[in-house]
Automatic annotation (TrEMBL):
Belongs to the histidine acid phosphatase family. This is Glucose-1-phosphatase. GO terms for molecular function: acid phosphatase activity; sugar-phosphatase activity. It comes from the Eukaryota. Pfam families: His_Phos_2 (PF00328). The lineage of its organism: Eukaryota, Metazoa, Ecdysozoa, Arthropoda, Hexapoda.
Amino acid sequence: MIVKKCIVKLKKMAARVIVFLCVIVASKGIDINSLKLEQVVMIGRHNVRTPLTDGLEIYSSKQWPKWNDTAGMLTTKGLRFESYIAEYISEWLASEEFFEGCPQKDDVLIYANTKSRTLESARVFAETVFNNCNISVQHYKNLSVFDPLFLPILHNKTEAFRNQVAQEMQKKLSEMNLTASYAELGRILNIEEADICKKLYMCDLNSQQSEIVLEEGEEPNVNGPLYIGNAVVDSFIMNYYEGRPMNDVAWGQIETDHQWNLLAKIITENQNIRFNLQNGAKDIASPLIKYVFKIFKFEIPKFALFVGHDSNLNSVLTALEFRPFERKHQFEPYPIGGKIVFQKFSDKLGQYLKVEYVYPTTKQLRNCEKLSLQNPPQRIILELKGCPISPTGYCPWMSMLVLEGYCERRFKLEQVLILSRHNVRTPLSKNLAEFTPKKWPKWKEKSGYLTAKGVILEGYMGEYFTAWLQKEELLNKDCPSEDNFFVYANTAQRTLASAQAFVSKGFPDCNVTIHHTSESKDPIFNPVIHNNSAIFKLEASEQMRILLKSLNLNNSYEDLEDILDYKQSNYCMNEKKCDFTKDMNKIFVNVGFKPNLEGPLKISKSVIDSFIMENYEGFPTKSVAWGLLTNNKEWDLVLDLSKGYHSVIFNTSLVAKDVARPLLKYISHIMFEKQYKIALLMGHDANIYTVLKSLDIKPFILKNQHEMTPAGGKIVFQKILDENTGCFYLKLDYVYQCTDQMREGKKLSLDNPPEFTPLQLEGCQLEENGFCLWDNFVNLFYGVIDDN
């Protein structure tokens, strides 16, 4: 049994300190008259905007109100009302004697997302609170993209974590009850007369199921009735806030608070399913929370406002585990113009935190009421879980700082080992002409040599990995020492040349040694059988035979015969073996030799290997398989033969562990014993296949690739440190260039990266962060090596 060695002390120690201090504050109370406001940080939502969704006409045949601006733009009313909120904040700060006159520029940060509605809200706020003080709004340099600080996406890209979030979203969706809300909305829309009913046959929102949408790089979302309902009700609410006549708000069909609450429940459920997630919120909100905690730690600036969206407020409140609270006099869950206000106070005894949700009521918004200390917005005191507040809403400041470790895991890359396959080479088989009467494309290089295109592609990989490792702060801009970067390559020309291409482009003008043996066959990489026992040969052969028998390749065989015109080939005519589906495959398992097959599957593999390399090399499409592989479906059909061959010879447990053992021992030596910060091992597809099978990697799919072990592809073992807990974890990725990147020779960069496919070990349980504990991985690895 694998025992976890990582003991997490931070939470327990911090929790004891917080509880002790909180009990003192809650029981004795605080003299609020002696408190001084030291620092304010606000996270706010923009003000009134136009509806986000165009094309609402499909949901109702009634005439929709017209807006002067395009979707999602701050309105004139929104500008005015944000200034009213700012005037109130200005009065409040003055009452606390927070600033004397204009503050120094370093004392104020107004930072907004790149959307027009957030930038304009921030601008009018800054101009109102800091009138004539020359305080500008800060923002992300590229205004054409969503600022990563506010972008509500999942940053943890592991499949396990994504599945956790998907399950949580699905659970919330299944528990949702919007029957009455959908019925009321359908009535208001008169949906049976709408185009969505007449053309798309959605005539009852309750008759359709909503579905979660969770795509990499996109914010968590839903489709179906919940998406539709959210878009429509959002329009109703914005029309209401804008102050339009009630006949123009939902065509005068909303007359009571009960109706508003029914409809607003759709907005609330949409927000909760997407962002009120126990695991997801901490990940989604981590960039913004990290920024906020940096301000708290360094106590600079004195005042900060972040202007974002309802998704930001939702995910931050959820991530920090605030206790549930009632939003009085509001229908929206995260009202327009609302702000979470973190306030740091001090007295002679210490420092304290007070958090309030400050937002306008629906009445104040609709009537565009000026706000002031005499007519304030709502101020709801919020309470952090685990720290009871005093009667006036205060808890120890230390609790806020410790919470950073609860809501955000800070992972630091400590060590990387890269097991790589060489890049594009010429075909290995020298007798391809025997299998077809057609002419094969000519190559400039010898059989099995790295091509000029392969050198370029591997150079791109080297440049990318250097940029990535520098970004992760595992490397700096200087030339690496051998302790920091160790390279070992097999002795074949294609592996040595690939290593040289990686190093020369990744580390130009650096004297990086590429280590290799002087032997003609390097025993570390040589994929041969080592076990000389008769029982091993018998059992290994039987496992290969069972796997071979399980393959269903007749359609693939027939397709390849047609492509080759195989029945007209010399091999068919001379050997009288003319039918791939009927000719026999023969298995070979011999000590000192590579496990092998003879027969139609080996012939197929050799032929398809040439097709693949022709495609990577960029030969004209009419020259790649003579123009007879024109789409992914056709490629996948013949590639099943190549995958079948490699599975039979390398993908059985006995053979894989025996073949891979020397390489696994070497990996353990340089990764666990020598502990090079970065190591690159350049080998072959046989090495990739057998290592993956030996470690019992769960099934995976490489997107946008035909091969299972693409040329230039890399298994990347990453040792990462959770700085909060001191625990080390394994992150395992398959990093590779997709087929189009290779064929078109696209340069790689941090903006155009190769593909990353997360890999999981069957025997290494994932923690809640989606990673496997490093010590568990080390034990598993040594267990594989010692398994005879």
